[in-house]
Amino acid sequence: MQVRQELSQKHGRGLAPAGDVIVITGTMLIGISALVFLCVLCAFLVLPSEAIASFLPDDAFYYFKIARNVANGYGFSFDTINPTNGYQPLWMYLLLVPAYITRQMHVEVFPRVALVYQAMLLLVAVALLHKALIRSCNLPAVLMGDAFALVLGLRVFVNGMESTTVFLVFAGIVWYLSRQAGDSQDAAYFALVGLLSGVLFLARLDNIFIVLAWTVGHALLRNQARMRWSHLLLMAGAVGLVAVPYLLYNYVAFGDLVPISGKLKSSFPRVEHPDLSRIPLHSYFVLVICLFAVLWLWRKMEQPRMLLLFLSAWSAGIWLHALHTVLFMKWAVFKWHFASYWIPLTVIVPLLLTRWQQSRYATPAYLAGVVVWGSLVLSLGQFFWQAWRGKELPDWHRVGYRAAVWARQNTPPQAVFAMKDCGVFGYYSDRRVVNLDGVVNNTELQTYLHRQQLGRYLARKGVRFLVQHAVHERSTAVENAPAVASGVYEQTTIRYVSQLYGTVSDAIPLRRKQERFRQRAREGVYLIWDLASTP
Fold first, then answer.
1. Whose CA is closest to 397, among 89, 203, 165, 160?
2. Which residues pair with 526 in a beta bridge?
3. Which pLDDT tens digit goes with each residue over 245-256?
């Protein structure tokens, strides 16, 4: 009891009504979460590379390949032939550290090291949140929040993509804001907030919605917080100080402020095919929870006001992101695009638990938190068990890894391949692979596709092998797809789409005799053709 009183006095907010049981439960959750964290680290090191290829997004290997090429002196290029800016910059820059360390090691080492590195960044983010929330939340709520954030991060953020970086910047901002007392802030606050906003933008460019919402929020509170317009201009200038050099680099090197991946995926400002189903159902659920939780906290809690303003801006920003996704995104929308929707819950949960500590909602809220945490742990366990065990019919990532091993063993190091959705194959093959969907290429490809000169483009780039990751009966890009999938064709053609212009390329002729690799995956047949062999 004396220890409990000392903890209560130290952290200032008291303990939840359930007392020692809640503290012990929170401590146990942290302990189990730490054990889960260590198990995940071990899994990254001991899982077969085929399993790692299976559970990571294909796009994660775009990052790995580009970072490895930079570390080996080839610049920001996926294939060492075409320069590209199709990546989120902050994660790419951070990834150069393990890429440089492992640049002379076997190609299969770097993804493992990168995942461990990303997990350590997650740990730093959780530690920052702990330091921030211990100032305004009771100890059991903070422990519950730590456990939730750690397991959520392992399940949703640590995937080779930029999500962990966004979470790390979020945690740094929360830590800084937790140290700001009162509503009135000086010029140094606005300068630093602007710099942090710029870093948040570089972490993922569509965080611009959050940055804009945060700026508008400060403007709306200008009179209440005794802000001057010069403060807001200072904040905007600091954002520009971080963001403008990157944007100018894009414009000078590639002719557009927006990276190629953003240009291809968004139709903004044209609304072409609005679709609510682009956003997963559970993401809508999280959006609603964040919105109502933030509104409730804003009404009920006086401090920390600047932190609540940031959470409100984040909630508004992800709603704007959802609106943009529904109206303007036209292609390649994946679940990691919505990882930022989960991030504010890592702060909202401890704040709610603290606010309810003396109410009848306390025990049900803590029990609900334990259930959610347990569900995440079970989901994480199932995720890695499936990756370890595999399936009778492998997915195209696993088969892509096998095809990459075939390429390493059966083609010369200078061989050039071409393929869309080429992350896994492009990385593990350790060969030059020209990206044909364009997200890690540049606008030159789109021009050739639009002019129906893809054959000339492939010849110009020295492409010898053409790879298609999933030919099935309904494939529209492949002529006579059912026969090609079953292997009973003599000849066929394949076309590719220019996502920039919305047009279809010329047909690339292929024959059955040119096949060099064929293996069935769940999504279709994985094929490699040798374009240099006699048709």
1. 160
2. 519
3. 999 999 999 999
